[in-house]
Amino acid sequence: MHRHIGLTAFPVKHLPFAVCLPWLIVLAVKSDNGVVSRLEDLLKLDMAPFTDKIIAEYIWIGGTGIDIRSKSRTISRPVEYPSELPKWNYDGSSTGQAPGEDSEVILYPQAVFKDPFRGGNNILVICDSYTPSGEPIPTNKRCRAAQIFSDQKVIDEVPWYGIEQEYTLLQTNVKWPLGWPVGGYPGPQGPYYCAVGADKSFGRDISDAHYKACLYAGINISGTNGEVMPGQWEYQVGPSVGIEAGDHIWCSRYILERITEQAGVILSLDPKPIEGDWNGAGCHTNFSTKSMREEGGYEVIKKAILNLSLRHMDHISAYGEGNERRLTGKHETANINTFSWTEPEAGIADRRCLGVVVDDLGYLEDRRPASNMDPYVVTSLLAETTILWQPSLEAEARAAKELQLQV
Length: 407
Hints:
Structural class: alpha+beta
CATH class of the largest domain: Alpha Beta
Number of strands: 15
Helix content: 25-40%
CATH superfamily of the largest domain: Glutamine synthetase/guanido kinase, catalytic domain
Number of helices: 9
CATH topology of the largest domain: Creatine Kinase, Chain A, domain 2
Number of domains: 2
């Protein structure tokens, strides 16, 4: 019997703006001369009856490894697959990805989604970046991930991922969480998680608009909920197979960034946006292989735990910037320097465990990744460590003893 990733539902209050689907047009204050109204009419234009041309929004990851960039181009006809799209270029010196004297960077289309902002046949295109000679630039983490996921051993194991993306909404001018008094604090944590009500839930319109826009786009979003810290939310993407998990998370982040842009709210993926007695923001990654999902899967999971424990610091170093501020041993985390795991009893696991939570058959949950992690890096590293990497027998025996595992 397969175990499936558990998902929940969430909350937030109405904001002083309106986000309308399917095209996600923000309704601004009407001007006396009707200029805003005419702008809205143009934004909602359906081009399909008049032209076969579509707008493709090319999306890529910038020089920080977390910033999202995009630009638009006209395509002569509707397309379904990235192979139908031309490569494009951009000025890498303006994104921190190339020197000024040799700044051209080439975009390779890799995944196509429907565009919930423009509607019709218009599309969002997830790309990765290369030099003009065809070499992946250093910030192109998708290329290495694709290599790992194209290994036949990995293909045969059909790796599934379910990613829990947490994020925080901030007020624009003060960069303080949405719903918090400016310069002050709300009541302590407790009543906000999955809560309902104007005094407990802040940003529901954004979360709900994002949920629907992701479904429209074709992203495999599975659910969403309000988080423990007020102004903080989570959504889940998956189960997704292989490289698709990273493509879907990056596109979902782009859509969320666009929605918060329209709403006049700042999106933060900082793993510890508010210091003190407040939960941080993670990106828990649920993972399984074909062998884990079949009879005898528990033994495969235990072997995966051994491998993960031996490469703990390799994973931590790749699991997001500022994660040390989140993984402190408090607020449902373990210390960043300690690998720990637990077996759930009656479906309940120690949520402070840093490493993984295992079920008797099905999947493990890696609770270490920060909210700003690169999903290409995390998903491919999990596959590499648990499927491809082989530790020495001595290291394996030592880890088994330390973790009290018999494999």
